[in-house]
Amino acid sequence: MRRAVWMAVMMTSMSVVARAAELTADEIVAKANEAAYYAGEDGRATVSMRLSDGRSREFVILRKDVPGGLDQMFYVYFKGPADVRKMSYLVHKHPGKDDDRWLFLPALNLVKRIAPGDKRTSFVGSDFLYEDVSGRGLDEDTHELVETTDAQYVVNNVPKDPAAIEFASYKVWIDKDTFLPRRAEYLDQNGTVYRRVSSGEIQTIQDYPTPTEQKVEDLARGTSTTITFSEIKYDLGLNERIFTERFLRRPPREVTQ
Amino acid sequence: MKTQAPALIIVLLLATARAVAAPAWMASLNDAGVELHGFAEYRYGLRTQSDPVEEDASLNELRLQIDSPWYHDLFTAQIKADVVYDDLADDRSDVDLETGQGWLDLRQANVLASPLSWMDLKLGRQVLTWGTGDLVFINDLFPKDWQSFFLGRNDEYLKAPSDALFVSLFPAFASIDIAYTPRFDADRHITGERISYWNGQRIAGRDSVLATERPDDWFEDDEIAARLYGTVDAYEVALYGYDGFWKSPGGMDPATGKWLFPELGVYGASLRGPLTGGIGNLEAGYYDSGDDRDGDDPFVNNSETRVLIGYEREALKDLTVGVQYYLEHMMDYGAYRRALDTAGLPADTARDEDRHTVTLRITWLLMSQNLVLSCFTRYSPSDEDVYVKPSATYKISDRWQASVGGDLFAGENEHTFLGQFENNNNLHASLRGSY
Description:
The complex is a heterodimer of chains A (257) and B (435).
Chain A: H1 2-21, H2 25-37, E1 42-51, E2 56-65, E3 72-80, E4 88-93, E5 100-105, E6 110-114, H3 130-134, E7 141-148, E8 152-159, E9 169-175, E10 181-187, E11 193-199, E12 202-205, E13 208-211, E14 213-218, E15 223-234, H4 245-249, H5 253-256
Antiparallel strand pairs in A: 1-2, 1-15, 2-3, 3-4, 4-5, 5-6, 7-8, 8-9, 9-10, 10-11, 11-14, 12-13, 14-15
Chain B: H1 4-21, H2 23-31, E1 37-47, E2 57-71, E3 75-86, E4 104-116, E5 119-126, H3 146-151, E6 162-169, E7 175-181, E8 197-198, E9 203-204, E10 212-213, E11 223-232, E12 235-245, E13 251-252, E14 259-260, E15 263-275, E16 278-289, E17 304-316, E18 319-330, H4 333-342, E19 354-366, E20 371-380, E21 385-395, E22 400-411, E23 426-434
Parallel strand pairs in B: 10-14
Antiparallel strand pairs in B: 1-2, 1-23, 2-3, 3-4, 4-5, 5-6, 6-7, 7-11, 8-9, 11-12, 12-15, 13-14, 15-16, 16-17, 17-18, 18-19, 19-20, 20-21, 21-22, 22-23
């Protein structure tokens, strides 16, 4: 009897291993997307951004997933520098179509609706792109598993609509154990790497492996931006009301404290 | 007394320079639980043509802003005040918190609390804004500072503060805002002191400063503004109501020659949401001029219907274009023209029944968004006048920012809304250090 149990356990685990090895590139990318952008039902982090030209951005970000799909809501509250201080920014993210975005300008007490923009424009003037922060639609590229090492999957991604985008392809190194993307390299039409996104130390916070540092290098321009995340918390039970005009106008305690 | 204010400003500016230069000192203050921010700014502006009734310089001022919020478990308190040395002001020592004249301009002083989970209250001096227009305001009847705007001060000074109780209610079906202003807060409108204007007969300025009679009885000359709003999918829908007075002079007492703020009620609605890759907005309002409902008083504004249609989209990477069409339709136009005749007032300076306006805004972010180029143009084919406001703002560093800009007016006639300001074309520049 005991032997039969063991056999069953072994066979089950072998099939898990076998299945893991057989993950398709699409499945790996989907899991990486979930690990990188969907940890927990909601989350909070204090973000410190350092640009290589000496400028900085300090903000608090709140995230809440909309149940039953990939839609998410983000609330960003800027603490510095002076020209953006106390501004708040609200995004209702709808993968596959335009996001809804609002910006609150406290000096004018004005809620400004932001026209949908090119998602590959700079996020708050840094080397991070809007798409690096909110995620890129999985359907926008074809994915190919080009290499599997002991620890990582290497996936090559080619845009389905190359005319609409500045890169020819990008390669992502994804950790097998956590499915977190650790490095991405963007290649131009000549096959030269011109942009690199990498994540530093991974900490496990409330069972969710979480990168606490990310860096973007613009190799063509010779600039870089480093983001450090601190005071990270998941599953806070954030009220969905936070992601409305009410709290855009009067930032909630979750970001002011 | 007159010499004290500049001395105080110099002391404060030195303190700011020290604060800007010594972030460690600020950090220790922040550690102690005190948040203190703000900026020091110098701004200079010059008319591009001489104006017989105004000074050549349009701006020459040092401004120190102090902004300090205080977060408590039960409420948030905020103070934001500008200490100003305005070299062009006639009287710097006499502080008028309503008009912002004098060495102190109190921008905000209020307390915000949420006594119930579905209610927010904000009491005190605050800046209020709603509506969907870009520099076109139909249902936003909160005070504007047109003088600051046309002189080329920073955009935030377009909004003058209100002394009000602002109540927000959030029942499940919608959101409701109610702003109660116990004593009428007028616009900081054109007076002739700094900007020359059409006074009904000629272009006037410092030689003929607008005399007004402002309703100012507490709780009697009050204003109430309300908004009911919500979202349907990605579309924002709102209904508005206002009961108060014309915010800039909307009438004249022929006996005294003083300009008046007649009674006004406004009822309107707006819609804003995604439209073919951009953002579209639609707003309308009916202006019920309570003191001239029949439109037959030539000295009081007639009622009006106002409609705005706008569209904004990113045309190129980091380049956004916004266009608007705005209509002001005067009600009872026949009665207005007959009343002008009866009173013996000239017909050639009469208003058109329909005043059409189109606006265009181009905003271009360059150099990693550190350089912002913007140009706002407002053109009226019916008034045959135009206003162009170009600006360039460069963020030198996290602390320092420089800007240049202009306010340019042109018109076929001297009496139209923008044409009257033709002698006020100006260029201006500023340098701001923040802490």
